[in-house]
Amino acid sequence: MLRIASCSGILLVLLSHPALAQRPADSATVQDSALRVFFDCPGFAPACDFDFLRTEITWVNWVRDREAADVHALISTQQTGGGGTEYTLSLIGLRRFAGRADTLRYYASGTSTADEARHGLAHLLGLGLASYAATTPLADRLSVTYEAPSAPGAAATHDPWNAWVFTINGGAFLNGQQQVHSTSINLRLEANRTTPAWKHDFAVFENYSQDVFKDVPQFDTLGNQIGIVDVRSISRAYGGSLLVVKSLGPHWSAGVQGSVNHSTFSNLDIAVSLGPAIEYDIFPYAQSTRRQLTLQYSIAPRYFNYIDTTIFGKTRETLGQQNLTTALSVTQPWGSASVSLTASQYLQDLHQNRLVLFGNFNLRLFKGLSLGVFGDVERIHDQRALPEMGATPDEILLRRRELLTSYSYFTFINLSYRFGSTLNNTVNPRFGGTGTGGMVMF
Q: What global pTM score does this model have?
């Protein structure tokens, strides 16, 4: 039995109705005639537990390929103002249901556990699929019941926090052996408030990293060892950011952005920035879970106080900087894609600029073949903070200092092909918890 929660009561879809239990039927034939569903949900979302859904919703056939499905259950997510997740469930009809589409939404709060989130999504998914399953031969084996709410109406919710959400994140990473020790500590505090009219985001952070290498041999210019030393390398960054945005209708928004930063890697004792920004979305913001195409422009004065004298002979300076970003994000049956292009330049010298292209693609090329691409490319001509003295060999090898470059890039490409049985109903968790340290069998 699957329980499907709604706002006004509880809908129950019963697969083994007592009145039908005595009907003679071949179970394999009955199951083969069940609704075929292709589940498409981002793996990082807490509620997207496919094994759980297959054990909860057994009155459909889960298939591995979209081409074999009657319904494509496409899930897209976005963060809510309370630190939770909005799941938008698009049920897209295929084959005999071609042309039919339904959209449902489930909200998991910021304090919901992964189990609560997956139960909520299972309720919603079962509710949506029930209407499709009603047209299959399994229809006479399904029944619906309703439990009325305990009160005729719900009182308005009182929020003592006035929509403010506070988050504290901290962690430490320790790694070492006899001659090498590494320590990394990070802390982040956030305060967020999101309403239909306003968005407020504030954050402060601290990152500290240290590497110690013992008994490192030292050599002279002729290659002769002249001693043994311990090498200690430290990197530290801290700062904060603010964002205040006002909604100006279904397509426009305007706000203020600011930041304060300290970074030994970037030779910044202190860097301060504060200025206005405006954004236009070609599509209405209400469609953001499925598609977004935005243009954003910002301009701000930036004050820099450097740790060491820069290659331009500066210890401090104030510059004006402008940024223009265009970003596209789509989630469709063929996959998902997001790409953004950001151009920035200093107003005092337009030749000092930076261009950043970022992309993330997950595409179904054809049946069973998928392509994943993630990465960015940067053209860099604005490194004003580079220290005049350069970087030491230790800082270069350990990447503790920013180095002069005209470009940078990183990318990850994955190509996968799956073939074989299209049915994907069975869950078998045996040996799923085997660790990486080895296995002993008796």
A: 0.69
